[in-house]
Amino acid sequence: MRGDARPSVEVRLASPRGFCAGVDRAIQMVERALAKYGAPVYVRHQIVHNRSVVERLAALGAVFVEDVAECPCDRPLVFSAHGAPKAAFREAAERGLFTLDATCPLVSKVHNEAERHHAEGRHVALIGHAGHPEVIGVLGRLPPGAISLIETMRDAEAFESPAGAPLAYVTQTTLAVDEVADIVGVLRARFADIAGPVKEDVCYATTNRQEAVKQLSGGCDLVLVVGSKTSSNSLRLVETALRSGAKIARLIDSAEDIDWAWLKDKAVVGLTAGASSPEALVEKVLEAMAARYDVLVREVASVRESLTFKLPRALAD
Question: Among this protein's residues, is 287 annotated catalytic?
Fold first, then answer.
């Protein structure tokens, strides 16, 4: 081997990866609202959990706030893809705000399920992570005491139905598929009549991205997941990679976050992106690797995605 020869690395590129239909729709809604109504357009919470997306939209004139009260009455307000409690929508209506609801339709499905179970007299168990905006939104769809949060198998083992009420469960859409299956298994073993969704709540994009990571992780010396620390589905991809055989898995916002010492003596590197991460960030990672290594890219495909969600009539062409 010549002394100036560059090291080689095989990159297993997950497919599908990156934007899901709900994220794409939410971002388009902010972009079109800015084009139609001008800046600023206010957005309750980050429209999606990705730093580069939020920074780009902020540069275009989006203003991200955590409280409806921070939005002036004469400007549009967009609710983020994660959904929000009923109280937030009620406050916006009481103030006469023009609102656009970018809640992912699959999150809205969970809202509708929780409300239906409550209307039918069931106590609802929500499987999810405390503090996540999607969970806060689902909890805020029902009256206090009508819904209980279950985060772990230990919570499921200790959970008791209030006053012996019939039960149902719903699920945060961005959890690890295997984690949800374990918790649901405990609940079903303890409460044989517990009602669940007709179709599981963990969304297709979360499921597909985890499956792709499972397929590529075995034999990987390192798996890189492009996504922000606030992104639940991206964090779950890191966990999935480690459970599926990757020796090391790391979450990065962008190529600038890579410590190139991570790749020293690494022959096989997996690469994927969370559902709120733009494909451009993945391309930048590949470019940065190609500047330092002879890169052989091998795509590992699980399923092909074609789902899209319609924009609201106010923003449609």
Answer: no
